[in-house]
Amino acid sequence: MYRVLFVCMGNICRSPAAEAIVRSLAEKAGLSRFLEVDSAGTHAYDEGGRPDSRMRKAAAKRAYDLDGLRSRRLGKEDFLRFDQILAMDRQNLEYMRDMCPPEMHDKLGLFIDFAAETGEEEIPDPYYGNAEGFERVLDLCEAAGRGLIDAVAALPRERPRR
């Protein structure tokens, strides 16, 4: 089993979208038994709450269901549990680096790095914007998700755990 965690600030927009998109892509690629995905926030202001209604609405138009997801805060145990922990932006990546044991820094990265073709350096926070911002986040998460699925598909199925 390969485990990937997606992280944004509040775990109500970008990271739950990434979780739902990658879960869907994994199912379509026949990887759902090998790939486990989850999401968290560095500052889960709405811990236990549902994703932002605007993100749920935009995602539902693309057949991604975020209704069952609940916000949670990134914890130290996540650095042990997950093989890869992907931030949506540099600010959250730096927060994760400060929190993560140095010997596990190789697990950290940016989700957008799996979509170099977009030319983007981060997946922007749509929270204070309009509906177009949520659509843009979904576009970027789909592109990065496809790249991540390709990378995971190339991994050996039996790997020793750390």
CATH superfamily: Response regulator
Strand content: 5-15%
The stretches of 5 or more residues where confidence is low (pLDDT under 50) are none
Strand arrangement in the largest pleated sheet: 2-1-3-4
Determine the structural class based on helices, strands and strand pairing: alpha/beta
Query: Which CATH top level class fits?
Result: Alpha Beta
Mean pLDDT: 95
List descriptors.
162 residues, alpha/beta, Rossmann fold, 4-stranded parallel sheet, 5 helices, 4 strands, 39% helix
Give the helices and strands, then pairings.
Elements lengths: L1 E7 L5 H15 L6 E7 L11 H9 L14 H6 L2 E4 L2 H10 L8 E3 L20 H23 L9
Parallel strand pairs: 1-2, 1-3, 3-4
Helix pairs in contact: 1-5, 2-5
Q: How does this model look, in words?
A:
This protein has 162 residues and is of the alpha/beta class. It has a single domain, classed as Rossmann fold (3-Layer(aba) Sandwich), CATH 3.40.50. The protein contains five helices and four strands. The protein has helices at residues 14-28, 53-61, 76-81, 90-99, 131-153, and strands at residues 2-8, 35-41, 84-87, 108-110. Strands 2-1-3-4 form a four-stranded parallel sheet, with helices on both faces. Strand 1, helix 1 (14-28) and strand 2 (35-41) form a beta-alpha-beta unit. Helix 1 crosses helix 5 (131-153) and helix 2 (53-61) crosses helix 5 (131-153). The two termini are 12 Å apart. The model has no long low-confidence stretch (mean pLDDT 95).
